[in-house]
Amino acid sequence: MRLSALVILFLSLGATSAQAQLFYSPAPSAEGIPLLGGFALLLTSLGLFTVAIVKGGLWHGRFNSLAGLCLVVAVASGVSGTRVISQAQADGGGSGGGGMSIIGFIDSPTGGLVAISSSALNVFENTSGERQRIEDIVLPEECPDTNSGVIDGTTRCNVGDIVPTGVDGMCYTDCRPLAQ
Predict the structure, then answer these.
(1) Reading across the β-sheet that carries 162-163, which strands appear in turn?
(2) Which stretches of 57-161 are DSSP H helices?
(3) DSSP 3-state assignment of 78?
(4) pLDDT confidence of 68, banded at 50, 70, 90?
(5) What is the pLDDT of residue 9?
(6) Each residue of 109-155: pLDDT tens digit?
(7) Which of the residue ranges 48-62, 96-110, 119-133, 161-175 would you say has the lowest mean pLDDT?
């Protein structure tokens, strides 16, 4: 077990409701699978389209189905490389009652903790530059921590979850009072 995980475990054992916190540590690195990006796929598809035109005889007034398929693949691969939604931010919506939204930052690449506020929607953003694993969550006594589903693209924090870095690196704990 890593030293940072032992420190986090030790700190979480002594935590009280006054010390409501989310504990995190670096996630094990995963080997990436090399894939072609959208631009490389577009170039490959256009190359196939060119071969289909030359071999299929488009220059003689015919447009064969292979050339058409290559053209469709070229356009689709170019479109699929774009990001439709660039960033999600929690706005306090959802099924809980009032309360405000608090943004906390998972900002240490070596692990650490972030305070959790009672009577608020706590949104945690990973700005550490490294994937982080949620080791423990110690909530305030008055926190219902309802699972409000996905709030503006952000999912609920759970122990064991890996929070990526970048635009998708967010999770929440919902400590807003329940609607009456």
Answers:
(1) 112-115, 21-26, 132-138, 162-163
(2) 65-80
(3) helix
(4) low
(5) 43
(6) 999 999 999 888 999 999 999 999 999 999 988 888 878 888 888 89
(7) 48-62
Q: Which helix (H) or strand (E) holds 47?
A: helix 38-56
Cα separation, 24 vs 123, whole angstroms: 14
Length of the chain: 180
Strands 162-163 and 155-156: what pairing? unpaired
Contact 95, 179 (CB under 8 A): yes
Please state, in angstroms and rounded to a whole number, the distance separating the CA atoms of residues 97 and 102.
15
Other beta carbons less than 10 A from residue 113's beta carbon? 22
Q: In 3-state terms, the chain is what percent helix, strand and coil (to 5)?
A: 30, 25, 50
